[in-house]
Amino acid sequence: MLPKVATTILHSTTRAVTSIQHQSYTIRNVLQPSSNNSLAPWNSSGNSHWGNGGPGPGSAKYSTGSRYYGYTGAGRAVTQANVTISSTDGSFVQSDEQDDVSTRRPAANSSRRGTRARSSSLSIPTHSRNERAENLGVLKTVQLHARSRHAFAPQIIPSAPVEDDPVPASPRPRLARRNSTSAPPPTEAFDPSIPAPSPPPSPLHSRSASPAPSLPPTDPAAPQTVRSPVRTPKPETLELTIAAKRLLAARDSGDAARAAAAVREFRQQVVHPSVREFNGALEALQATRRPGEPLNLLIDTYNDMLRHSLLPNVWTYIILIDALTSRDHEVHTAITALEGRIKHRKLTGFTEVPTDEADRKRIDMLRREVNFPTAMSLFETALSIGGNSRLTGGTYISLLRSCANHGNVNAAIHVFAQQEKRDRILPTHVTFVEMIRVYTNAGQLKGAEEIFAEYRSAVKTGDIHLFWAKQGADPRRDALLVWNQMIETYFRFDRPDKAVELVDEMLNAKINDKETLPDPPPVSTATFTTVITGFCQTGDVATALLWFDRLLVQQVASPDPYEATGIATKPDEVAWGVMLDALAVKGLVEDLNRLFVTRLEEGASVRNTERFVVFSANMAHLSEMNDEQFLWTVDFLRNRVLDSPNISLKQRVETTADIFSVYLDRKMYDTALSVLSEYFNLWFEATTKGLRNLRAPPSITEIQKLQLKFTEKLYQVSQGDVPYAVPMELARVAGTVRIALPHAYTPYMLHSYALARASGSLPIQDMTLRDWELLVMAASEFEHVTNAPEAPQANVPGFAFQGLASLIHDLATYNIPLGQMDINLVRKLIIQMNEKFGSEAASQLFHETGFASIITNPHDPAAALSQAIDNTSAPVSDFSGSDSGYVSASTTTSPTDLPRLRIDNYLSQTLSEEIKHNILKLADALTTAYTKLRVAIDAGRAPTVPCLSFLIQTFGRERRPEEMHYTYSVAQRVLAGLEFNKARQTDGWFQIENAMVIGLAHHGDVEGAHVHRQRILQQGGAPDADAYGALIYNVKDTTDDASNALELFHEAQTHRVAPNVYLFNNIISKLARARKADYAMELFQQMKALGIPATSVTFGAVIGACARVGDVHSAELLFSEMTHAPNFKPRIPPFNTMMQMYTTTKPDRDRVLHFYNEMRNAKIFPTAHTYKLLLDAYGAIEPVDIDGMNATFQELQANKNVAVQGTHYASLINAHGCVSKDLDAAVNIFNTMSIPADNLVYETMTNVLVVHRRADLFPEYINKMHLAGVHMTAYIANALIKGYSLVDKLQEARDVFESLEDPPVGVAAPNNHMPHSPAEAVPSVDQSSPVYREPSTWEAIIRAELGAGNRDGAIDLLERLKARQKIVYKRTPKTTEE
């Protein structure tokens, strides 16, 4: 009889039947009018995805067991879909809340039943599911398990083999028939030849007093030793002991930690435990074990039970079997999910090699577990002691589930045969589902069909357990599980005709009541999902699509996949995922896009994985399209597929790169650049405004990589033959993300510029001064490599750029003000032209182009060019101190005065631990360690060279020079004793010299440190990164700290010293303080390129560099990157730096308060400097908020952890006196200070007087300062000079200037600065000490002379300055011009 499926679905009299030719079979596609479609041949069981021994259709998510939730039909079919990958990500829910046939854990006495959403539902087949054959060692172990009854016993005691009892004939032998199918030997077949264990030995009347043996391995995968336990003579009592009650309470609590603690307490404190108590312990552990947790503690507890010579009973084995089968199920689930995740990445295009490799290693590790063989061994042991009559129905089902997962037919038949012996336990529908799965996974269709036939027979005769029906559940759902499983099985054996016949029967079924189990059951949504999945797995995607399209036009949708509707319904979420995946794999892009649009129009929530599947499938076929189709498709992807707020910025990085790459391939350069700019704008918005709805944005490093990828792709495709507007805009974008154009691509940009200039298409009107500056920078960098053997321009066909000189002529032609560009860039330009053409020709070039002003000094034109060159390229003077005559060895102890020493490793360990373990009391620890060292030396014992190196560095850091020099002398004596091991002696010498560099540098003896540095260099070595970092850190109080620090850093690079974070942090900090932000950022990028993770110190330094030069945007980006770094540890300096930037560089009180609140949210407490910034934010930024400032000051006074300092009073005085112009209030604050005024307070008060032009009060406050013992500073003098000049008292200003002195050559003016950190002691300076001029002092007096119209006096001062300080002199010509 023809099926009536089409009639039922289409509600018409026309039968819609499709004949599908398959070998000798013809089946009817019941959802489509007749057409001939060839079914793709199904792989044989040996090489198909459903191969023998594999996990089978019942993906571990849906199988039975202690956590069974009833989804064994279509859900399992979908999970095993023969599609390359699925977009299913776990958001689909197809569960049957009534089908919870749980293999009851002995620990659970409360029923837990409810709807459970599937976790990580992946509709993917698992390739290569054949379990590896167990090696001989494991097989032998399993046999020993069975023979000795106990799978984890600590010791092997041979026992005489006993023949296994024959299995009695079952009154219902149908499932126990072993000859019903020809089953090939499975890889993990149950071995019926394993003999049963011997009877237990006679009970012992006293416990052994011998020590307990060591614990055996607790890994389930490890072979466990076995010994026969001995019964304790103490009889079991019915009354619960205190220990048992505690374990019972822990079990019922559901708290795994509480249960573990209770079990450990029981094992440690109970001297004579009983079997019942141990069972309670095992029960508590198993009942509270979280899914995925290993069984180590449970197995260890069982082994402890055996060590107490206690004989496990049946309940013990029930608990262990439940635990092992549950773990086996979890392993199976995890392997399926991991394999699906790998395939998922391939389909969506998000391939991550490291992640894939990690997942594969995890899979290999999981497959090494042998939970199933051990569970079967314990099952045999339970049978041998007559325990079959006490096993629960859940135990049989959990074992059958594991048999199904491993495709082990023999083991399954054996388990079911034992269940058949139980007259009171009838098979449930889950039993039949698992048995069908067993034969399916074993590749035996005939056996699966017989099980299905026996199920139908059992339904008719009532030989099936229907206990759920008594509880008001719907038995039709139970039947659906079995029928859907059989439909899936037919598809897996490439028999879609048989599968459709079952669907036809289900469509003809009557919708009966819920009191009886129907056969066949009415169809449900899950049934059609199983069919669609089956066709997709067989490769017949076209037929699957026909069914799917017919389902789409149905009017009924069921939210419950197992609702027995009896009619066709709209596809569920699982069916959608399977269908989209299959279309993507087959490359049916038009149908894929059609269905995706339909899904959007239905208003369904489309998951990201589905969007990425559609995106990747379309991208893979773009090369086959013409331009019109291409533009439509990419627009569809950008505006429909990727238009979702659920796609994070991190996920958009790869999609953005994919889209602009295909545009570039089609030479649509402008459109490609707009894609990049659009993404960057979104990223800027997220990072600068902190938009939470955009999730955590990618780091600036990822953004920079994206920009570099665009640059590389652009120039590879165009070879520089691209409208210059594109490289120009790209350079702008690169500047916003703080990345320079790589040298390899510089010629392409210059070539594009030259072509545009030659063709007259240069976008002059759109080019800003910054654009020209970027072009000059690129040309300047290119000039260095044009003469190299591997010149990069050689890769550019018809390279058109004529060199840097031609660009200078272009600047003149287009009236671009070269003199207004960055001064460092202009200086570099001058040097390059001088080196290339010579001084005269270079000078002539700049005169011819009208740029003579950049090299012309009106006072000395002839020497201007050479001065510019000299001032830029003059080497920094050597400050190594190699000629200082410094001797680092202690004058009190010479190596020759020490006795002959032998190395004592124990002494080394003692000294190192003494210091490292008492770091909080380091001073005392160092004293103790030094005493021990002296005692040991006197006894002729010495620590190792590494220990001596550690001691030298530590003594140096803690400013203990005597101990450091003594240790150095000891080291010299130790090295002398290594004369016969030259290699070891040489290595030790370098190690000790390097330690002295570090120790002396931290001690403050920089000259001595450089002596040891020179020694290392002279011997062909180099200090390590820590040593160079210490030297750079201690470059202080010179006229150019940054240049001196850079020389050391370059030296380290020259000697190929591997840098570390400490070295980078110190050099970046030096550059940041010198306002060399570009160089600091360059080193920061270099640091990240080397894979050295930036710390909060690093970020604080580069943020400070950007803040000092006013680069607010970069500072914000860096701060955002810092806070999103995985190793971010909040520290106060970066927050203070951001607050200071918005207080001084770009005043914005709201941003100051924003970062202050961020700081408090990060659990960071404000420092004295933080309060000073808050006071300035309220008191120095217009409009002034006096109330806010006063409230902040009151908070500071109430804070017992932060002391009020002069800097805080200075802020108050500045706010009232300078900003609010209230002299009386400022004077009142000064007079009522609770602490003595320091020089910063006097400086601020002097500035107040200057603002109010009250020079007449200067003597009064100068006198107060002298009486208070406060030393004058150059900055107070600067204010005095300015104040006197404003009231036309030039002579008094000159007197102040002349009262100051110049600092020594090469040394920064001392005693002019106050420490910012309260931890630093305020330097005590004698009032009689001279006051040294700062560069700003010269500027102040020159401005005073010019303000009085005395130009000659200003020139005289400049001449004095010229002879004194070249660096300051270079700074002042602009002043004279003004």
In short:
The protein is 57% helix and 1% strand.
Topology:
Layout: H1 5-10, E1 18-22, E2 25-29, E3 37-38, H2 74-79, H3 136-148, H4 242-253, H5 256-269, H6 275-288, H7 296-307, H8 314-348, H9 353-367, H10 371-384, H11 393-406, H12 409-420, H13 429-441, H14 445-461, H15 467-470, H16 475-492, H17 496-507, H18 525-537, H19 541-552, H20 573-586, H21 589-601, H22 608-620, H23 627-641, H24 649-665, H25 669-689, H26 700-718, H27 725-736, H28 746-759, H29 769-783, H30 804-813, H31 823-837, H32 839-848, H33 864-873, E4 902-903, H34 905-916, H35 922-938, E5 941-942, H36 945-957, H37 961-976, H38 982-1003, H39 1006-1018, H40 1025-1033, H41 1041-1054, H42 1061-1073, H43 1077-1089, H44 1096-1108, H45 1112-1124, H46 1132-1145, H47 1149-1161, H48 1168-1179, H49 1186-1198, H50 1206-1219, H51 1223-1231, H52 1239-1251, H53 1258-1267, H54 1274-1286, H55 1290-1298, H56 1335-1347, H57 1351-1364, H58 1366-1371, H59 1373-1377
Parallel strand pairs: 1-3, 4-5
Antiparallel strand pairs: 1-2
Helix pairs in contact: 3-10, 4-5, 4-6, 5-6, 6-7, 6-8, 8-9, 8-10, 8-11, 11-12, 11-13, 13-14, 13-16, 14-16, 16-17, 16-18, 17-18, 18-19, 18-20, 19-20, 20-21, 20-22, 21-22, 22-23, 24-25, 24-26, 25-26, 25-27, 28-29, 29-30, 29-31, 31-32, 31-33, 34-35, 34-36, 36-37, 36-38, 37-38, 38-39, 38-40, ...
